[in-house]
Each structure stands twice: as C-alpha cells, then as structure tokens.
C-alpha cells in the first residue's frame, strides 16, 4: 500500500492495491532435424592458355594446363585465366588483335618514310630557303622602286604586308598644324593649283575650305596676289614656278606672304638629284606632294628626300597606304605563296 498524502486543505485516504499473480507459461522445446548431404565430387577441369587460343596469321598455339586432382570431397580450384580482349577486326577476320601502339608506330613510319623527298614533305623542308629567297627578291624590288636602301635592310620575313609596315616605321610623319595661318604650296602651275585646293580642304575652316590665293609667275600679277593674301590672313597660297628651276622670285614670294608652312609638289619621274637640289633651293619644306607616281617606275624615290609625303597622285597617304602601294608592286613582281 501507499501512505496517505496530505496537501493543504485536502486529505486523501491511503490506497491498497493487490499484487497480481501471473502463471508462468510452459512452452515445449522444438528440435531441428539434422540432414545428411552426400559428398559431391567434380571431374578435373582443364583450361587452355588464352593467348594461343585464337586462329589467324599471327596466332600462336597454346597448351592446355590440367588442373590438379582434388582430394576426395574437396572442391577443385580452377587455374587462373589470362584476360584477353578481342577487337572487332579480329572477330570478323579471324585474325589476332593488333596492338594499337604497334599500329601507330607502323603508320608513323609509313608517313615518315618519304620525308625529305621532293615527292612528299621535301617541299616543307625547303620552305626556309624559299622564304629567304623571297625576302631577298622583295628587298631588291623595293630598292628598284626607290625605297631607301637602309630601310630595305630592315625588312624581315613572314607576312609581307606587316613586314613592309614595320619597315616604314622610319618614314617621317607629316606635321601640318591646322592652326597655321598661311600655308604655301609651291610647284608648276598646273599641279600646284590642284594641290592647293586639296590642302585647303584638309586644313578647312569651321564649315568651309580655306580660301586659295594663286600667285602667278609674272611680277605684274604677283604683287596683287600677295596683297590679297595679307588681307585674308588665313589662306592657302599656290605659288607657281617655271618647272623645277627655283629662282630668287620664288623664295622672295614665300618671304613676302609670310608662309608658316611650305608644301612642295614633286614629279615622281624627276631624277632624285634634281628633286633634292630644288628642295634645297626652297629652304624649309614641311611636306611634299608626289605627282605622276602611277606612271613612274620609281614612284617610291621621294621617300629618299627625307621629307614627309602628304599625298600621292592626289590621294592622302600615310604609312599604311604606302605599305599597300608597295605590296601591290611586290606581288606583281614576285607573287607570295
């Protein structure tokens, strides 16, 4: 029983609970019958060597290895097998599987058997020699066109256009400031006026080309033209000459108009010595415009003058344009492979 519990204000009587008495069950013990199995005996097994089990031109004969005779009642242990993988060709043709490494080596020998001959890859072996031959031919052609010899020595092999662009790194750049008030263009009467108007477009004002003042060769009209250039202030003066004989009148005119920059028009067919003498007589020349370049066999000779070339037959020209012109003539003389 449990003693009585007392809580404030409440009293509970003691409770008595009887202890249950459960009977113990008696389960019968079950016995498992014992079974006798007769001893098993297995016949001896023999396994052939697998590497010689295939037929074909490359097959080798194999010998069967008998398994050891087991003791009475013991299971036999089969002989270990050798792993062999057949290829699809061997299954179809009945031949042995060829080793991949052997096939690759055999193919490499077949491809390399003709190396160095004219019939197969011998042409590739001659490529450096052909490249050097083409480089020498390009240098010779550039010298014939008038490119300075020192520049052609810097020509390298590889891509022809890129090589010519790198060679022209020594070419001086044109520096004609658009803020210069008076720019004089000097040359024979016909080409000089055309070049003066092109220069007026290049050095244009806000919304229009610069005004062009033509200064003739005769002294009577020269004074009036010089006075007009002074009134304009900002202009392009086309100073006409009698051919390429520079007299004192031309240099006096350049001083009278106060030319801030001078562009000389050069005929491409003019001998180099004559062109150089004319430029020296003019004094300070900032740029040259080459005329009749398409009809001259030495259209690159003005590059030897050491003065920036601003135009070639009326077309603005820079290092990239020069490279295109020269490469077109190189291609005509010796086509690139």
What would the keywords be for this entry?
337 residues; alpha/beta; two-stranded antiparallel ribbon; 11 strands
Care to describe what's here?
This protein is an alpha/beta fold. 35% of the residues lie in helices and 14% in strands. It is built from eleven helices and eleven strands. It has helices spanning 88-93, 100-112, 122-125, 127-145, 149-153, 160-167, 189-202, 219-232, 248-257, 272-282, 319-333, and strands at residues 6-7, 10-11, 46-48, 64-66, 182-188, 212-215, 235-241, 261-267, 287-291, 309-312, 315-316. Strands 6-7-5-8-9-10-11 form a seven-stranded mixed sheet, with helices on both faces. A hairpin with a 2-residue loop joins strand 1 and strand 2. The protein starts with 5 loop residues before the first strand and ends with a helix. The model is unreliable at 50-67 and 69-124 (pLDDT under 50).
Shape: elongated
Low-pLDDT windows of residues: 50-67, 69-124
Structural class by helix and strand composition: alpha/beta
> What is the H-and-E element order?
EEEEHHHHHHEHEHEHEHEEEH
- Give the strand line-up of the largest sheet: 6-7-5-8-9-10-11
Q: What is the count of β-strands? A: 11
Indicate the multimeric state.
single chain
Short description:
By secondary structure, the chain is of the alpha/beta class. Helix content is 35%, strand content 14%. The chain has a 7-stranded mixed beta sheet with strand order 6-7-5-8-9-10-11, with helices on both faces.
């Amino acid at each position: 029983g449990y003693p009585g519990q007392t809580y404030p204000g409440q009293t509970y009587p003691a409770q008595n609970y009887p202890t249950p008495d459960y009977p113990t069950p008696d389960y019968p013990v079950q016995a498992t019958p014992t079974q006798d199995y007769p001893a098993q005996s297995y016949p001896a097994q023999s396994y052939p060597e697998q590497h010689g089990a295939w037929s074909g031109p490359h097959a080798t004969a194999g010998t069967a290895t008998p398994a050891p005779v087991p003791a009475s009642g013991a299971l036999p242990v089969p002989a270990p097998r050798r792993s062999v993988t057949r290829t699809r060709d061997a299954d179809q043709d009945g031949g042995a599987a060829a080793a991949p490494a052997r096939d690759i080596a055999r193919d490499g020998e077949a491809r390399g058997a003709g190396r160095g001959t004219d019939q197969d890859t011998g042409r590739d072996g001659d490529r450096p020699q052909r490249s050097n031959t083409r480089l020498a031919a390009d240098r010779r052609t550039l010298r014939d066109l008038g490119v300075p010899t020192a520049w052609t020595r810097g020509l390298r092999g590889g891509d022809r256009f890129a090589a010519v662009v790198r060679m022209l790194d020594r070419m001086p750049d044109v520096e004609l400031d658009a803020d210069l008030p008076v720019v004089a263009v000097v040359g024979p009467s016909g080409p000089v006026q055309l070049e003066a108007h092109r220069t007026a477009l290049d050095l244009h004002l806000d919304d229009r080309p610069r005004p062009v003042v033509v200064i003739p060769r005769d002294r009577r009209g020269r004074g009036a033209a010089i006075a007009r250039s002074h009134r304009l202030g900002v202009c392009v003066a086309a100073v006409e000459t009698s051919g390429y004989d520079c007299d004192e009148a031309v240099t006096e005119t350049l001083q009278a108009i106060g030319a801030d920059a001078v562009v000389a028009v050069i005929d491409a067919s003019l001998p180099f010595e004559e062109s150089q003498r004319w430029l020296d007589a003019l004094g300070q020349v900032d740029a040259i415009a080459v005329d009749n370049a398409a009809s001259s066999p030495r259209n690159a000779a003005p590059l030897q003058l050491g003065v920036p070339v601003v135009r070639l037959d009326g077309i603005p020209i820079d290092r990239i344009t020069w490279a295109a012109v020269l490469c077109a003539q190189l291609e005509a003389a010796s086509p690139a492979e």
